[in-house]
Amino acid sequence: MTPTMKFNMMGLFLLFALNIGCKNGARNEATTSNQNDSEAILENNKGQAFIEDDASTPNILQIAIGSPDHSTLVAAVQAAELENALVNAGPLMVFAPTNTAFDALPKGTVEDLLKPENKDVLANILKYHVTPGNYSKEFLKNFKKLGQANDQNVPVEVKGDDVFVGGARIIASVPAGNGIVHIVDKVILPPTQ
Questions:
Q1: Helix or strand or coil: residue 164?
Q2: Tens digits of per-residue pLDDT, 128-159?
Q3: Is 51 left (phi over 0), alpha (psi -120 to 50) or beta?
Q4: Domain at 97, CATH number
Q5: Could you tell me which residue, 62 or 33, shows the higher pLDDT?
Q6: Is 21 part of a structural domain of the chain?
Q7: What 3-state class would DSSP assign to 9?
Q8: Burial per residue of 120-139, b for 16 or more beta-carbon CB atoms within 10 angstroms, e otherwise
Q9: What is the domain extent for residue 79?
Q10: What is the C-alpha separation between 134 and 39, in angstroms, rounded?
């Protein structure tokens, strides 16, 4: 190896080492910045569900909050403290019962479920309305069952053009930034174990 080649090799090695050092420094700064942001969010006890972003497609929680027909669902999500789960990157499918669907439950059921001592039962019911994935109503016709977020399966039935999930009919679908909201006409109750 000639002295010029040795010098060029050494220069390339130094450039490579300097480049890696700069990248690691930037990564450490980004990590520190992200940690500080996360700590601030945790201190406010709000989480990512409460970060405002006017530029992107609304996420599942934002769609529910913006719908006057889903105020009972939003209250239930808040009582079960599941807001942050509905804004995760997903993709998620949420089968969102309307207020009318909640009203069809036996009198006093919703009020009872919203009590702090019933938080786990409520969370289980709400998770039974969530599936990983982002499937259109049409594509759901290919399924016989779906695995829900509460680790139970829900049956899927097709009757004509209608799709029923756990006995609830999909009456509309709204795309979300992190999945899709299928609006259903019934509260889907998990099977008892």
A1: strand
A2: 999 999 999 999 999 999 999 999 999 999 99
A3: beta
A4: 2.30.180.10
A5: 62
A6: no
A7: helix
A8: eebbbbbbbbbbeeebebee
A9: 60-184
A10: 31
pLDDT value of residue 90:
79
**Domain assignment present for 7:** no
> Is residue 63 a contact partner of residue 176, using CB atoms and an 8 Å limit?
yes
pLDDT band, very low/low/confident/very high, at 56 (cuts 50, 70, 90): low
Can you tell me the distance from the alpha carbon of 29 to that of 48, in angstroms, rounded to the nearest whole number? 21
Amino acid, res. 21? G
Instruction: Pull the structure tokens for residue 74.
Output: 């939003």
Local structure of 171: helix, strand or coil? strand
Q: Phi and psi at residue 61, in whole multiples of 5°? A: -65, -45
Amino acid at 71: S
Q: Is residue 45 part of a domain?
A: no
| Total number of domains in the chain | 1
**Is position 90 within any domain?**
yes
Residue 48: name the closest of 80, 88, 77, 78 by CA.
Answer: 88
